[in-house]
Hints:
Chains A, B: One of its GO terms (molecular function) is oxidoreductase activity. Chains A, B: This is LLM class flavin-dependent oxidoreductase. Chains A, B: It comes from Paeniroseomonas aquatica. Chains A, B: Keywords: Flavoprotein, FMN, Monooxygenase, Oxidoreductase. Two copies of one chain form a homodimer. By secondary structure, chain A is of the alpha/beta class. Chain A is 40% helix and 14% strand. An eight-stranded parallel β-barrel of chain A has the order 1-2-3-4-9-10-11-13, surrounded by eight helices. A two-stranded antiparallel ribbon of chain A has the order 5-6. The longest helix of chain A is centred in the middle third of the chain and has 19 residues. Chain A is globular. Chain A starts with 7 loop residues before the first strand and ends in a 13-residue tail after the last helix. The model of chain A has no long low-confidence stretch (mean pLDDT 93). At the A-B interface, helix 3, helix 4, helix 5, strand 6 and strand 8 of A face helix 3, helix 4, helix 5, strand 6 and strand 8 of B.
Amino acid sequence: MSSRRQLRLGAFMRPVSIHTGAWRYPGAFPDANFNFAHYKRFIQTLERGRFDAFFMADHLALLNMPVEALKRSHTVSSFDPLTLLPALAAVTEHIGLIATASTTYNEPYHIARKFASLDHISGGRAGWNLVTTSNPDAAKNFGHDEHMPHGERYQRAREFFDVVTGLWDGWADDALIRDAGSGIYFDPDRVHVLDHKGPEFSVRGPLNVARPVQGWPVIVQAGASEAGRQIAAETAEAVFASQATLAEGKAFYADIKGRMARLGRDPDHLKILPGAFVVVGDTVAEARAKRAHLDSLVHYDSAIASLSIALGTDASRFDPDSPLPPIPDTNQSKSGRERTIALAEREGLTVRQLAQRLGGYGGLAMVGTPATIADEMEQWLVEGGSDGFNVMFPWLPGGLDDFVDQVVPELQRRGIFRREYEGRTLRENLGLPRPKSRFFPAG
Amino acid sequence: MSSRRQLRLGAFMRPVSIHTGAWRYPGAFPDANFNFAHYKRFIQTLERGRFDAFFMADHLALLNMPVEALKRSHTVSSFDPLTLLPALAAVTEHIGLIATASTTYNEPYHIARKFASLDHISGGRAGWNLVTTSNPDAAKNFGHDEHMPHGERYQRAREFFDVVTGLWDGWADDALIRDAGSGIYFDPDRVHVLDHKGPEFSVRGPLNVARPVQGWPVIVQAGASEAGRQIAAETAEAVFASQATLAEGKAFYADIKGRMARLGRDPDHLKILPGAFVVVGDTVAEARAKRAHLDSLVHYDSAIASLSIALGTDASRFDPDSPLPPIPDTNQSKSGRERTIALAEREGLTVRQLAQRLGGYGGLAMVGTPATIADEMEQWLVEGGSDGFNVMFPWLPGGLDDFVDQVVPELQRRGIFRREYEGRTLRENLGLPRPKSRFFPAG
């Protein structure tokens, strides 16, 4: 075991790939998001690559995009994460299983029970990506005409978290005696009735599942707003970050870890893992060509909308096959516009290529050889930009296989990524402490 | 394949065994309800025994019993069925997976999505035991001070069913084109927006999961009230029945199938499967001795409450080790009282033994050799008492292994139970038609 700081790697699966052209890439599985056998292959490869976790995104509606874009995207639909991950638990032994579950349109008793069940079934490998749902189409699937306002969503999320963790804490770790001789199955004095009554929820408890193997499944969050950062610093153990550059990443990292220190939390007890879209080639040029081909599979009608948003102007009036014309200032996101213009100039992209880049994946990307990708990851780790990454694969299975077969060995050779799992649970592998029950702190 | 009528067999798992003494039986797994490895063993044995389905009961609270009884019962807690069954799907190939899910404290969009996901993940083996929740303690876990009245629960259940099946029907079977050449993933004209607005639910849709493999997962119900029988005749494809005698079973069978005929449904399209508690021995006397030993493991304090309810009088004042004294008439359930008195006389049970029998399991039981058990099952099948059974095992793993290793071969030898699965899906194995989408009836 190396004494160097260790990378943590999650595999971020947003219906298979975040890239809307992924299903059309040569050799890709077009039906991967609805084919359990494919998911099984992916996760078993990730486990061979010693990934910390398989991280499943979620939406509670068809994605909120125009039908012309939607009908071209495999991200239109996906299994419920809390139904998929138990099945993947049964075909793996070590890798963590992080499911996204919304606090906006769920009941805390159900969520507490499902994650406790997953944690038992997987032997302590569950993680909960606690999100609020901001897709306005989701509201309409749950009896609401209007989407819940941002502030109310966060207030509800915070109380939801308190109820769920309170239910998990309601059984002492040793409450289940199972003494066949005396006939006592559990000790009623080691079970706490939560009796929560708050502005959003009234939940009596106790939960009808024993305390999770990990005490609590690992708490993951992704909020980037002021409220989201604060709730993360207070409660999260891993954060899915979305900064696109190392400078932004370092600022975010310092902000969150600083908040933790001020709250009296050990900054090591939260892992910051930016999403990173990784394309591997034998040469940097080959990797870039792969990405360019992938981007070219994004339909122009879908792509141009992303470019228009980034530029703050209607890009559909530009000649697709010419360089980007001069863009006037608007009152929309200046940094986004400048970054987009700089990207077009740096890589010499036409309007079409630029649009397809943004329509595919516009965030942090590492496109190169195993060595250049490892260089970038190491730099983020060493310079305080992150504790690791949520890797996003450009297409499946090829992009995932390339990462595990080529990048992982390079990271291992440098001594910054495990060769074997350190522990039995996700919490142990991430180096996170096991929470004590608030009601039974002695154990 | 035999031309004789075929038995359908479900394995009814109410945290492992319905019998509250099961966990104390010699050789039983005391932690079976929280040990995934044990569940895996059980279901793989059932699949070897060609069972139609693994049927998981559920409660949304600790069971509503006095703590003195509760603390002695392994039924206190169990995995969420919709988290357990996907994991079991991944370790089996043929057996059906029926999960109980309440319409009282759930949202139809979630339930539609979870069962659709389970159906895809299992290759078409999902079933939904649609129940209303009548445990008053459950209400308090979901923000309600009072339990929902019976009539309202059934009205909500019926609308819930309409919404869930409407969401399943919202994608035509051929909506997902996945044409990599043209870049079209799905045909928007083959997706229906449900836009349901009813007294209980407002759900827009469409679901973000493709139509289930089976069209709909198999619909299972257990209601025995007038409202429950009618909703079953209208919508169910399997019924968990609870009649304790063949005469009662025949009356129930005729009632449900008669209602179906009057509704224009083919009576073969609903399978009536009473719960049957089966104890196997080399001789009838040995099987009875096993049961008596099992019953003796039920604590008297828990048992006496069941006897008091059955007799309509406080049985704790009787001498436990004497025969039942004469019981005066009360205005409580006369048939239950008479059946209990007759049972005590027929088997010569003391008050303690009688109480422990009822506290263990008081319903339909088949206690004998493989031949006598097969005789009973065949009689129910031939005389129109049932289409099969939901078998309840007295303890695990022994009681389950005995059934699969000894009773199943006897049923197969008689030509009334399959030697190999007939189809790929639960629906095909049960001989049920695949529903057409109401919105895309041509396919």
